């Protein structure tokens, strides 16, 4: 029997809320726990790749080639970077051109199922996708392809209020909002009332408490690790523990394991 593969998109229309940071750490955390993981960088800024220490000089072929390529055999293999033990990275390039390409298609609902169909044969347990901000054709396609969504929310009033836009986006796409599997409050500052108030506001907004993880603190070491091309598992024990607790939730929320 073939293994089940679960695909999570780390998504928020809002920029700078921690999508790439959280995608990278969930992917690496799962890999450290023994799962076989593919991280797909879907954002033109390539932050997820950079946070793992890879620049555009480290890759020639990318997700773009899979979108425009005509089902060449072994193409996916040529695009993959072995990023860490158990963790492969599919980098991205020319995201604007990918959007243009997808615009031409009559329907994007199944486009990634088709373009990424070889992924199934690599035996991954999890595919984690780091999305760019805002609505786009690529994000439309990713939202259709993902089994579940992980939503980082920065603990700042404007970001908390903007969570409604994600629900709207899903409903405009005719996708059920129960695809949202986890909401990760990010950049929590224990010392400020503002952060605590915004966490309370988010709790009110998210009717189902079950979706919320523990907040990730704002910590300079998290940003520093990213700049060095390392994850906190290689750089900062305290943050590592916090991300591991989120990884555990991801495993328990594994969409395909639910009845
Ligand atoms: N908990 C945190 N503590 C400190 N810095 C953080 C934290 N989370 C993210 N950052 C930093 O904040 C910045 C934005 O984070 P990140 O790039 O992950 O956000 P994003 O949502 O992916 O942004 P974009 O919308 O541009 O893709 C980065 O410099 C990152 O290192
Ligand atoms: Mg990002």
Automatic annotation (TrEMBL):
<protein>
    <submittedName>
        <fullName>p-loop containing nucleoside triphosphate hydrolase</fullName>
    </submittedName>
</protein>
<dbReference type="InterPro" id="IPR025669">
    <property type="entry name" value="AAA_dom"/>
</dbReference>
<feature type="domain" description="AAA">
    <location>
        <begin position="6"/>
        <end position="176"/>
    </location>
</feature>
<dbReference type="InterPro" id="IPR027417">
    <property type="entry name" value="P-loop_NTPase"/>
</dbReference>
<dbReference type="Pfam" id="PF13614">
    <property type="entry name" value="AAA_31"/>
</dbReference>
<keyword id="KW-0378">Hydrolase</keyword>
<dbReference type="GO" id="GO:0016787">
    <property type="term" value="F:hydrolase activity"/>
</dbReference>
<dbReference type="InterPro" id="IPR050678">
    <property type="entry name" value="DNA_Partitioning_ATPase"/>
</dbReference>
